[in-house]
Amino acid sequence: MATEILMPALSPTMEEGTLAKWLVKEGDNVKSGDILAEIETDKATMEFEAVDEGIVGKLLVEAGAQGVKVNTPIALLLEEGETADDAKLPASAKSASEPQAEKPPAQSDAPAQSAVEAVATPEPDQSPDWPEGTPTRTMTVREALREAMAEEMERDPTVFLMGEEVGEYQGAYKISQGLLDRFGPRRVVDTPISEYGFAGIGTGAALAGLRPIVEFMTFNFAMQAIDHIINSAAKTLYMSGGQMGCPIVFRGPNGAAARVAAQHSQDYAAWYAQIPGLKVVMPYSAADAKGLLKTAIRDPNPVIFLENEILYGRSFEVPDLPDFTIPFGKASIARPGRDVTIVSFGIGMAHALEAAETLAADGIEAEVIDLRTLRPIDYATVIASVKKTNRCVTVEEGFPVGAIGNHISAHLMENAFDWLDAPVINCTGKDVPMPYAANLEKHALITAAEVVEAVKKVTYR
Amino acid sequence: MVRKPAAKQSTPNVSKDELLRYYRDMLLIRRFEEKAGQLYGMGLIGGFCHLYIGQEAVVVGLEAAAKDGDKRITSYRDHGHMLACGMDARGVMAELTGRIGGYSKGKGGSMHMFSREKHFYGGHGIVAAQVPLGAGLAFADKYLGNDNVTFVYFGDGAANQGQVYETYNMAELWDLPVVFVIENNQYAMGTSVKRSTKSTTLYGRGEAFGIPGEQVDGMDVLAVKAAGEKAVAHCRAGKGPYILEVMTYRYRGHSMSDPAKYRTREEVQKMRDERDAIEHVRDMLLTGQHASEEDLKAIDKEIKDIVNDSAEFAKDSPEPPLDELWTDIYATDVPQGGAEQNA
Fold first, then answer.
1. Which of A173, A296, A365, B111 can bridge A337 by disulfide, Cβ–Cβ 3.0-4.6 Å?
2. Please, what is the average pLDDT of chain B?
3. What ipTM describes this predicted complex?
4. Distance from CA of B5 to the nearest CA of A (A)
């Protein structure tokens, strides 16, 4: 059976090319792998090999022909005993010559929806995080994180902790203090200083069904590992058509500490919140740290858990419950108010709450919303609040370009424009690498005073 | 430390069935890849498409050394690995054409396919990313206390990535049951090994970390299998990782759009004519009188039918429905494998 040899596509973008030169002539015997022709693509000159064996019957396109469209027949390949004239090629009888590749149907407009919205709560859920009357204990954020990990390791034998100095050193910031003694070296794994490597090993272990908690000594060092966080952990479920889940938590301190300069002082919230496939948590209080970390460890997806060194030692009330968790995508109203909505998360909450105190003295009642998770984001609670206050200020420590506050502003503009009585103001860190000098560092960071000033602007006071 | 030169004679002590199986498995990969190249030329396969033609003996030999439960993970040149571990040709080809019948429902493409069932963990597009991921798979097996081994495949190009050495260090430190298989096809895209390093004996780099290794003739499926068995025995005995540098050759360009001007046509032809792994087994079958020309023709036909069937399936399978855009971004459940492997 004669076969048409078609003009091949030899690059992802090629639509036509030049048949520069034939390397066979009519009557030649060819076998798989023999070079038939040289073809100039939009990028290079390529050798075009035979796939099937046979006799070159007829060259249908002359050497030197330009603008030959992909899939145009360029030659006939005959079987022994056939002649080119025998070879009338009814389309149905061609074995290897396929009809023109069908173009995929034009993409219709995909629904304007994002993965974040798909998992966000449609109606604001402001149920309390724990039942009224539950006894509480005063606890630091550090202790809360440690308890969360210990409880989950107790509960699920596939949960383990790995990272630099998490075991024998008892944690660079003492988050994992005592865990090695309690769970042993199989489950509290000290790693060498190899962020890219151990983030990859942790991700592989998660793909195989374990539930790793990978501690970065700080998230600044996770930049060395960000390829595995994004390309390996966040995307594999999608790339595998839903087969390969990756239940892993990457956690550690994020953002500015104190006087450690540019390479050790950066807030990565907006970086990770941009990635579909990741969940991103940034707690402020100890209760949230505990409840959200337990949820993160149980989540079947990769979770970025952004802590803060300055908050580690701060104390909060934590409910004394045997199994206390907080769902993702549920913001908390840390302080109710009617005049302005302040949206924040992580250490930004400290500035937001301090500003709210100051504003209250001036007779402005701010409603302070702690987002707690940045992917998914609880848009519903923010919008409900803005519909009440008609004004919004966002507060975060990160850089101003592409900030979480920018995203909240855009979302409000699209979904609550008619309720806004003033432009939304984003309070952020300054657009500079973090300086070392004490006065400059202070100036680079967001302050409660700046939040107060922003609120006065949006309330026209 | 084991340091051995490349040459290694195949033992003639091999059964007819075994030889026939290698012949069939290698031929399936070759014919499949030729068909994939053809479909690419017709515009049915898009993007990047890296063919495995020439390297077939590597995966077929190593799969012969594996047992059920062993895991494997590789780079983007992955079609051969999937077919060799028993994944369905239809599902692989339909993924190449971006159809719903593909292993990833058309969302992964040539470089990203997976199979829980066959313990195939991808299909990774970032050069060398599969190396720590594979060590992580082995970490999980060791953690769970079973005797599975993970085969981590990467190329001579990936061998120059830093994360390989971070992984070597931890794999040996923790005695992880992982066979690092360096498929040395001599070219990292267009850069030959000699142009990328003065340390050209790639298996020897494990020595710095205490990992034994050796070089293997990757055009000889029996030599690959024998080396694989040795490496696997080392891992299963709890002695930690092992490195196999398998000397092989890809006949085609790095990807479909590679004009391959960095090597001569004669060099490629010489490998094809003198060292072809499939021809080698074919010769053994014929000279050992294990099979006749007719027998082999029947196998050729059988393979051709499988490949043509996969191509038909890949063309007929519909494109994924648009709502697939929004699925599989987040898992809502415990991932498969989690429960069965609970420690």
1. A365
2. 93
3. 0.93
4. 30
Q: Are residues A145 and A71 in the same domain?
A: no
d(CA B217, CA B242) in angstroms, rounded, equals 16
Q: Is the dihedral of CA B245, B248, B252, B258 positive or negative?
A: positive
Task: Name the β-bridge partners of B115.
Answer: B120
Could you tell me if A115 lies within 8 Å of chain B, comparing CB atoms? yes
Are A304 and A367 within one domain? no
> Which residues in chain B have their CB less than 8 angstroms from residue A240's CB?
103-104, 108, 112-114, 122-123, 328
Residue-range domains of chain B with CATH: 16-313 (3.40.50.970)
Q: Residue A162 — very low, low, confident or very high, per pLDDT cuts 50/70/90?
A: very high
* DSSP code at position B115: B
pLDDT in tens, B225-246: 999 999 999 999 999 999 999 9
**Which residues of A are catalytically annotated?**
195, 264
The beta-carbon neighbor of A200 closest among B43, B163, B319 is B163
Q: Closest approach of chain A CAs to the CA of B279, in angstroms?
A: 14
* 3-class state of residue B215 by DSSP: strand
pLDDT value, residue A100: 44
Q: Does a structural domain hold residue A127?
A: no
Per-residue pLDDT at A114 exceeds 70: no
Cα-based distances in Å from B319 to A267, B42, B53, B104, B311 = 41, 17, 28, 12, 15
CA distance B13 to chain A (A): 32
Token look-up 């010489």 returns: B270
Q: What is the extent of the structural domain holding A20? A: 3-85
Together in a domain, A148 and A274: yes
CB-closest option in A41, A186, A279 to B143: A186
A352 and A311 co-located in one domain:
no
What are the beta bridge partners of residue B150? B71, B178
Pairwise CB contact (< 8 Å): B40 & A9? yes
Contacts of A277 in chain B (CB under 8 A): 329-330
The band of B333, judged by pLDDT with boundaries at 50, 70 and 90, is low
Question: B71-84 as b/e, with b when 16 or more CB fall inside 10 Å?
Answer: bbbbbbbbbbbbbb
C-alpha–C-alpha distance, residues B28 and B34, integer Å: 10
Domain membership flag for residue A289 = yes
Q: Is A114 on the interface with B (CB under 8 A)?
A: no
Q: What are phi and psi of A35, to 5 degrees?
A: -85, 125
Contact map slice: A 26-65 vs B, CB within 8 A: 32-33, 35, 41, 43-47, 49, 51
